[in-house]
Amino acid sequence: MKKENIKILFERYLEGKTNQEEEKIVLDYLADQTNENSEFHQVMEKVWDKQAKKTDHSAEAEQGLVQIWAKVEEREPKSHPLYAIFKYAAAIVVIISAALAWYTYQKVQKPAQIAITYFTKTTLKGEKVKLILPDSSIVYLSAGSKLIWPSRFQKGNHRNIRLEGEAFFEVKRDTTSPFVVHSGQMQTQVLGTSFNIYAYPQDHTFSVAVRTGKVSVSANSQGKMKQLSLLTPGMKLFYYLNKHNYSVGTERITDINSWIKNSFVFKDASLPNILKSLERYYNVNIELQSNQLSKCRFNATFSNKSINDVMEEIHIMSGKHIKYKIDTNTKTITVWGKGCQ
User: Fold this and answer.
1) Are residues 28 and 71 in the same domain?
2) Alpha-carbon span 151 to 135, nearest angstrom
3) SS3 labels along the chain
4) Are residues 81 and 185 in the same domain?
5) Where are the bilayer-spanning segments (predicted)?
6) Residues 243, 269: one domain?
7) CATH number of the CATH domain containing 323
8) What is the C-alpha separation between 140 and 124, in angstroms, rounded?
């Protein structure tokens, strides 16, 4: 039989597709070809010389070897007399060697994919944490927020993470792997910069403020992401989720991440929104008992103050029209009044 036909038959043997007569042809041929000067022996030596010197004891390798032995045992001739055992032993060794060489080659050509797992960090009211991502980017996660990120980022692909709540990012620059923050229907993309995202779903307002670099902000429009604006340092974008529109303004660079150092800045903010933020920052429950106070708006900065001091400042800023009561046992603050000054 021609060598080409033997090769085809050998491949069929390893796949378990040969019949008893074809098996005998393969084994007889290989048994005759296993001396040191044979063409087949020389080919096998070259194959093994290319393999790693260190034995692979991984679980994957062990499983591969088990499968190879099972295949050989399954295809091994059962009816040969004792005198033929030694003849066919060499052929069986060749089959094992060829199969192992093929397995190792496949492993080199198609390296095993490292599984990607995802981590989630959720902060409680009154809690903030600093996180370091796999690419060495830094995230400061604010109170009542959740961040989801992968165990590793793939070079050349987007570095995708998800955020609910507020966080300040210091992103390591990588022009080949854009850093993308997904927040509901909003998407913020950068290459390397620092910026703050405010994205609490229940507040219905999304904002991005840039401290350094450039930031692209997009929104989902009829199933497609549409870029809203390209922000530079000192710029801040507000997106109103219910109205599906946005505005762009400015903010002092030093105020953008001031909350990290317990300094809370509010610009033309409504009283209900201020109270929501204070609930998260100070881990308290605030009950607003007057609809008239919803129209009150303030510009205020509270730096390293207790919640008692903050409530007293709001009381004074309103011309003492806003009243409050703090229950320290239940950590509840009741707010009422007839309006603002």
Assistant:
1) yes
2) 10
3) CCHHHHHHHHHHHHCCCCCHHHHHHHHHHHHHCCCCCCHHHHHHHHHHHCCCCCCCCCHHHHHHHHHHHHHHHHHCCCCCCHHHHHHHHHHHHHHHHHHHHHHHHHHHHCCCCCCCCEEEEECCCCCCEEEECCCCCEEEECCCCEEEEECCCCCCCCEEEEEEEEEEEECCCCCCCCEEEEECCEEEEECCCEEEEEECHHHCEEEEEEEECCEEEEEEECCEEEEEEEECCCEEEEEECCCCEEEEEECCHHHCCHHHHCEEEEEEEEHHHHHHHHHHHHCCEEEECCHHHHHCEEEEEEECCCHHHHHHHHHHHCCCCEEEEEECCCCEEEEEECCCC
4) no
5) 85-105
6) no
7) 3.55.50.30
8) 14
Write down which residue in 87, 109, 131 finishes a domain. 109
Q: Residue 8 phi/psi, 5° resolution? A: -65, -40
Sorted by sequence, the CB contacts under 8 Å of residue 73 that are 6+ apart come out as: none
Claim to verify: residue 279 and residue 339 sit in the same structural domain? yes
Structural domain that includes position 201: 114-257
Q: Each residue's pLDDT tens digit in the chain (341 positions)?
A: 666 676 677 667 666 677 778 777 766 776 665 554 555 555 545 544 554 444 454 445 555 545 554 554 454 444 444 444 444 455 555 555 555 555 554 555 555 556 789 999 999 999 999 999 999 999 999 999 999 999 999 999 999 999 999 999 999 999 999 999 999 999 999 988 999 999 999 988 999 999 999 999 999 988 889 999 999 999 999 999 988 999 999 999 999 999 999 999 999 999 999 999 999 999 999 999 988 898 899 999 999 999 999 999 999 999 999 999 999 999 999 999 987 76
Question: Are 242 and 126 part of one and the same domain?
Answer: yes
For residues 233 and 125, state if they share a domain: yes
Final residue of a structural domain among 211, 237, 257? 257
The tokens describing 137, both together, are 């980017």
User: Which pTM does this prediction carry?
Assistant: 0.66
The owner of tokens 């953008």 is 256
